[in-house]
Write a structure and sequence with these properties.
With about 160 residues, this protein is of the alpha+beta class. The protein contains six helices and four strands; from the N terminus they run αααβααβββα. Helices cover about 40% and strands about 15% of the residues. It comes from Alca torda (Razorbill).
């Protein structure tokens, strides 16, 4: 199942790496090492929590979250390149949610931000698992549990 989640994991790791690169001050070699360490940490963490037939099963477990606390997987990868949690909090959004699910990787910056899809792939066989799912995914709970209108956040890109 390692190969099954490779695209989703590399998409998620590349996204967090892009956020760090945009913040500046970290060398390309360090960023490459961070991305590889994060991919390895995610692969290990998701190993027994990846259900392509029920993509939203385990969604909460696979959710990467920065919310006044650093996500342990991001913290672990950053530690490998000598970045402290304090430094990470300066470089990354203070509110970031990243959902890494089979066939879809999406994120939200800010508690009321829009949910943006980074990667989406049709499920093999073209069948939808929605009717089988009685539980809502982590994302659905966020959408339902929010009464305030969404603010749109746009990714800032820095060109040299």
């Amino acid at each position: 199942s390692g190969a099954a989640m490779r695209t989703e994991i590399s998409t998620a790791a590349a996204f967090v790496t892009r956020l760090l690169r945009a913040a500046g001050g970290i060398g390309e070699e360090q960023l490459r090492c961070f991305r590889e360490c994060l991919q390895e940490a995610l692969r290990e963490h998701y190993k027994h929590h990846w259900f392509p037939l029920l993509p939203s099963k385990g969604s909460g477990y696979r959710c990467i979250r920065i919310n006044h606390q650093m996500d342990p997987l991001i913290g672990k990868a950053a530690g490998m390149i000598g970045l402290s949690h304090e430094r990470l909090f300066q470089l990354l959004p203070s509110e970031l949610t990243l959902w890494v699910d089979p066939f879809e990787v999406s994120y939200r910056i800010g508690e009321d931000g829009s949910i943006c899809v980074l990667y989406e792939s049709p499920q093999p066989g073209g069948k939808t698992t929605k009717p089988l799912e009685s539980r809502t995914s982590c994302k659905e709970e966020w959408r339902i549990g929010r009464a305030s209108p969404s603010k749109n956040y746009s990714m800032m890109t820095v060109s040299s």
